[in-house]
Amino acid sequence: MNAKFYSLHNEMQTNDAKCVLKEMVNTFHWTDFEYILDVGSGPGDVTFNVIRPLIGISSYIVGSDISDDLVKFANAHYSSDNLKFKKLDIESYDIWDNWKKESFDKIFSFYCLHWIQNIRQATVNIYNLLKPGGDILLVMLAKNPLYLLFKIMSRLHTWSAYLKDVENLRSPFQTSMSAVQDFTRILESVQFTEVSVVNKECKFTFSSTDSMLKLIFFFFFFFFLDAIQAVTPFLDKIPNNLHARFIEDLQNCIPQCSFTNVKEDGSWEVRYTLIVAKASKMNNH
Ligand SMILES: C[S@@+](CC[C@H](N)C(=O)[O-])C[C@H]1O[C@@H](n2cnc3c(N)ncnc32)[C@H](O)[C@@H]1O
Questions:
Q1: How far, in Å, from the CA of 160 to the mean position of ligand 1?
Q2: What positions does the domain Methyltransferase occupy (predicted)?
Q3: Pocket probe mutation, ligand 1, options 51, 75, 115, max atoms within 8 Å of Cβ
Q4: Which of 13, 77, 105, 195 shows its CA 20 to 30 Å from the CA of 255?
Q5: Whole-Å CA distances, 208 to 8, 222, 227, 231, 266
Q6: pLDDT tens digits for 213-266?
Q7: What is the domain partition of the chain in residue ranges?
């Protein structure tokens, strides 16, 4: 993922993180000198712009990501006295050489956990990283819309060879009829308490403030595709001379996806469901 590109086009994700945190911020108990972890912090802008303003000046945030490039980018652009970024694969069995158990008072994660395959191991790691008495807030997509889109693309002869890894985009709950219950069960089984998992139905319209009417449809379309390109891991694999054709086929497949529709003004409305999970770790005392 191109860090700069993603951070310029993650309007939808930033908006959701702000919105969920605004609703939930008062349900947390905030104190001084807290250590806070953001799992899957990507380029670091959401950690810096959305989470950091909530914490006290004596508290400290660690942003973490599986990607070396993103950790490097985030440290170069968004680190500060009380915010640093560090590599972490949250679903790995083997993180304890570089991470200490029971280090964090709060753990947040936005738009990350639908990318991973082993949600149970990620949950176990999050539990072990959390201090007793600590809280977590995890926000992920219930289904990954890109999986549906690339699944359609992978059936096209030209692209099937490049889209072999499409199954890696399956969210942990892609085919589940009861993601809320499934994730509640996982959180409870690793001993989290006060578990609350809910679905949040969301809509986002990709629109422009640009007033050149005749270009509106065009612009809306490409704005939406820009947002998709920001997270697609596949473009890197496709030869440069085929990129334009790939994008063209991608745009032709979008109307086949049930989660989008073109509005009368030419803008694209995208519908999606988030899983919002809050839970705590029992205090030892
Ligand atoms: C869509 S970005 C979200 C970035 C940011 N949290 C936001 O809300 O804009 C998802 C991030 O999760 C990271 N990620 C994917 N799998 C991961 C894993 N197993 N452990 C840690 N981070 C992971 C990706 O590298 C990517 O930076």
A1: 25
A2: 36-142
A3: 115
A4: 13
A5: 14, 10, 13, 20, 10
A6: 333 333 344 455 555 655 566 777 888 888 888 877 877 777 777 677 777 776
A7: 3-281
